[in-house]
Amino acid sequence: MALIGIDLGTTNSLVAVWEDGHPSLLKNSLGSVLTPSVISINDDGNILAGEVAKQRLVSHPGLTVSEFKRTMGTDYIYHLGSRQYRSEELSAFLLKKMISDAEEQLGTPVTEAVISVPAYFDDNQREATKLAARIAGVEVKRLINEPSAAILYRQWKMRDIEAEPDGIYIVVDFGGGTLDISIVDCFENIIEIVAVSGDNKLGGKDFDKAVALDFCERNNLSFEALDNNTKHNLLWCAEEVKRSLSDSSTASMRVNIHGTIYEHVYTEGELLDACAKVLGKIKSIINNAVNGAKISVDEIMDVVLVGGSCKMPIVQKYISALFKRNVTADDDIDNYVGYGTGVLTGIIRRDGYIRDIVMTDVCPFSLGVGTRMNDSSPEYMSVIIPKNSILPISKSATYAGLTPFQKRLGFKIYQGEEMLANANLLLDSFGIDVIPDANGDTAVEVTFTYDINGLLEVSARDLNGPLTFEKNILSKSSQLSESEIAGKRAYMNNNMHLEKDKEENRRIMAWAQRLHAQADTEDKVRVISIIKDFSTALENNNPAQIARTRKRVSQQLLCMDLIINHHNFDDEDIIRKLQADIAKEQAEYADE
Ligand code: ADP
Ligand code: MG
Fold this sequence. Notes:
By secondary structure, this protein is α+β, with helices and mostly antiparallel strands. The protein has helices spanning 51-59, 87-106, 123-136, 146-159, 204-218, 228-247, 268-292, 313-323, 336-348, 482-495, 500-518, 521-540, 543-565, 570-591; strands at residues 2-8, 12-19, 22-25, 35-36, 38-41, 47-49, 64-66, 77-80, 83-86, 110-117, 139-145, 167-174, 179-187, 190-199, 250-257, 260-267, 300-306, 358-360, 367-371, 380-385, 393-400, 408-415, 425-433, 443-450, 456-462, 468-471. The strands form 7 sheets. Strands 1, 2, 3, 4, 10 and 11 form a 6-stranded mixed beta sheet that branches. Strands 17-12-13-14-18 form a 5-stranded mixed beta sheet. The longest helix is centred in the middle third of the chain and has 25 residues, at 268-292. The radius of gyration is 27 Å and the shape is globular.
């Protein structure tokens, strides 16, 4: 029975465990520590998750979905072909895939998990994450805020290197779909999250979109007028160019749109111009966090960069300019949160010195109820738990009725910082029966308890009477019954086939289909011949032959990928080398 840590990312997800006194990342069935957070349905209704699904974003956009974490805890419905899913179901499929891969690696069933969530996730989003885990069949031991996980890992890493890691840090976690800023006070063994701020609709995808739009503008194309497949292809190519520019000074973007090749060689300066608006949004979010913590920038000991988008030199330069100091990133920054969940599993297991680390977290927003002065006044936000209170916390407030002989008091529960209640997020509502009083002197005490997982519990009682009312605030999504959850689990188990060896074959097929969708006519013919070659090997059902063909076909596809989507001038050399290797392999193959 194992406990694992999961970074359930918008773009990529990771699994970590605590082993032999340190956190380690587990590889998925394709040998990678990053599992793309993408789900696709194939023609037979089978659910595909991870890398195979990601390849299908370009070839089968109508059957494939990414970034579903952005709608966690909402009623948004995704249509994949004729099927419909909510974000927590799609997340459950992804979790199932990662758990199954982890079980394969560990050789033992995984029954418990800690899962990281953005600090800004509200109550509904946290409940939805727990629901996803229940559908996937694991118990959530703890939810941890992503920046807290990152700092936990950093602190663990620094223990052996730095003598004095105490001080105030700012964690900038910039992933594919979210930007989370946290101000963290580290003192001895206590990690206190002092303030958080963020935007859960800003991330690497926005850079991809900015580059795709810029590319269209340079080539007199209208992005919006393009068909879905072409849009996805452009976004795919834009992301590749963006990533290439993290390692080299120029990168070429080459896209085949209905038989015409469009091309532009990007420089870092042009990337910066295309992405200026996206970068500009970072500033106010960082300012919010610094103001929320009531500190000055000079008090910050270090800026910790986390998440794949912080690998971009333009992001590092922009943040360095904001903080007026040189900010750099480690190579493994997109793994920090994942590793942090692994450290937390070590703390939960109370393993060695790691158990001495205590971590406190804060409530990232205010929680309260709406109140009125009289029947015609607007509803104002009455805060019960203020933003940035240290968790866990339990607080009460007393509310009076508005009229004599009132029999019932109604409450709406809100989350947010706006003065007018309905400008905040409505979490739920409830009513409580009270003993009617001629003078209208009713008094109801409302108690909010916010736990370390960031989940809210509400209770209320009539101070003048014996009537009590207790309620756990449950979001709509978590009101599924056990049998409904079991039904969703059964559907998932019947439609996900996670045999490891077949996964490699599926990846090859999905990769070939993606290249086919991207290629021009001549290259399409070459891709089809590669697919035929591989299909024949699969039909013969000889494992040794399949493995051998897979190796050869992989090299051919890599070569085709570089020819179709080349970015750097170095790629030309790689193509030549690959072509020579393939020719050699083919000669050997023919000799047999
Ligand atoms: P998330 O937390 O959203 O799951 P990650 O931290 O894995 O995401 O970051 C994913 C984002 O980082 C993607 O938008 C991806 O394009 C971007 N990214 C990853 N590596 C690089 C790189 N070397 N250069 C630029 N962007 C990168
Ligand atoms: Mg992340």
